[in-house]
């Protein structure tokens, strides 16, 4: 049975979880290189001050169909969600630029607006790619970049699937 054609869909809402520990580790790596006046490895992605690491735990991995992004912003601003193809290890294997997935999900809220907007085509394609990645992963990591004064505490986000 195709889960996308199920008449009575069962929703699976998977929240973005801010990974404070991994964000701190990646910031320490950048800080360490700066203090030593060292260069990052060729192609290494260093975390910028406005970037934070989030994770999504796939409590179910098969028969998923992407439905939508559920992104709520408490104030105006923009958040860019970039998926990673990396399987992180506890010793923090360095994240390389080539491990960042395309397309990027960009969500924004204009001053005075009630609704969050996005580029629908990119968001849809990104969501569909996550279905494929969920088949081989229990956890997926994302880099979220906040701009225009937006901060992590002002975001509530999840990915909604039909299961």
UniProtKB/TrEMBL annotation:
Signal peptide: none annotated. It holds the Pfam family Olfactory_mark. GO terms for biological process: sensory perception of smell; signal transduction. InterPro entries: Olfactory_marker, Olfactory_marker_sf. GO terms for cellular component: axon; cytosol; neuronal cell body; nucleus. PANTHER family: OLFACTORY MARKER PROTEIN. This is Olfactory marker protein.
